[in-house]
Amino acid sequence: MRVATIAILETIAAANAAYSVIRKCLENGREVTDMVGQVGKFLAAEEELKEQVKKKKNSAMTAITGGEEGDWECFQQLEKITEQRKELESFCRLYAKPGTWDRWQAYQNEARVARAAAKKKREKERQELMNTLGMTGAGLLGVLVAVGIAYFIGLYLGKW
To answer: What average pLDDT does the structure give for the chain?
Structure first.
């Protein structure tokens, strides 16, 4: 089993665990604010699962192997999580303070934008590091070539 598939299964397990805790809390009549952490875990797992499925679809290994193994299972899990998300929205709208779900959606959008900006910044920093390493390597190689040429010229002219 490939690493991508294992990561997807772990994310699915995390989403299902968080959902079952949330559902049990709601069934027991607990305060919605007591399970905000679990709601966050569930929604983060949903987002991570979508990202992992997207990476799997775009990976070189999927292109080589045809990429059909596990597609149906991934689709089914995404559908299940979509249904669970709709249930959570319904529960939040029914049992939480008015506007809680809408505020959560706004917060989630802000967090998504912040994560995208951080990812873009990390990628830019990585690219700058690669450029610096490349230029340093090219400079070092140039110096070595110049020293080598000077050495062989010296040997040819009998100076060394």
So the answer is: 80
Q: Which residue has the higher pLDDT, 71 or 83?
A: 83
Per-residue pLDDT at 1: 46
Q: What is the pTM of this model?
A: 0.57
The span from the CA of 125 to the CA of 32, in Å, is 40
pLDDT at 80 over 80: yes
3-state secondary structure the chain: CCHHHHHHHHHHHHHHHHHHHHHHHHHCCCCHHHHHHHHHHHHHHHHHHHHHHHHHHHCHHHHHHCCCCCHHHHHHHHHHHHHHHHHHHHHHHHHCCCCHHHHHHHHHHHHHHHHHHHHHHHHHHHHHHHHHHHHHHHHHHHHHHHHHHHHHHHHHHCCC
